[in-house]
Every structure is written in C-alpha cells, then in structure tokens.
Amino acid sequence: METFGQKIRRLRKTKKITQSELAESCGVDFTYISKIENDKGLRPPAESTIRKLAMFLETDAEELILLAKKVPQNFQDTIVDDKLAVDFLRVFPKLNETQRGILEKMIEQAEKKV
Questions:
Q1: pLDDT at 113
Q2: Where are the domains of the chain?
Q3: Model-level pTM greater than 0.85?
Q4: Does the 4-71 domain belong in CATH 1.10.260.40?
C-alpha cells in the first residue's frame, strides 16, 4: 500500500507539476513537500493543508487524510454526535470476515441510494 508521501509524489508527477508549484498552491515551502514525499518522519500536515493538496492534485481529500493516518473533522463530528456511529466503532473490530462482507455489501447499497 502506498504511503501518504508516495501518493502525493505520484499524483504530483502525474500532473507534471514541480514540488515548488505544489507548495505554492498550498501555501507551504517546497522543502516541506519534499519531506512529505520522502516520508521523512514528519507529523502529517494539518487537515486544511491536506485538503488544499487534494484540491490541487484533483483527488479525494478524505482518502488523503486517512492515508496520512488522521481522522477527518467531519468523521470526528459524526463520532461525537451520533451514538450509532460510536456503537458501530465499538463493535466493528470484533466482526468476523463473513460479517464484514455483509456490512460491506450494505454500505455499497447505501452509497448507491445517497
């Protein structure tokens, strides 16, 4: 699986832009982009910076945020405000493969209706 830095590098190169161009579009120094891409043990960028990266690189912000091992703010809000979400997160690690498969199908169906 790709790391956060590897994904940023791949997306940037696919768009044929330099680290400097990406950095300027996100309001950070190009050396910071280099450190991110090389997985230099930095703390992941702030969610707002990741969202800027996602917008400029035309990719899903939540996917990048999760890849950076952060929890998107909208997920945090749901967890805090929705008892069902809390219950789900409590039970999810205990599910077996069959139960996870059933749940995956339910989620796919729900996404089609949204």
A1: 78
A2: 4-71, 82-113
A3: no
A4: yes
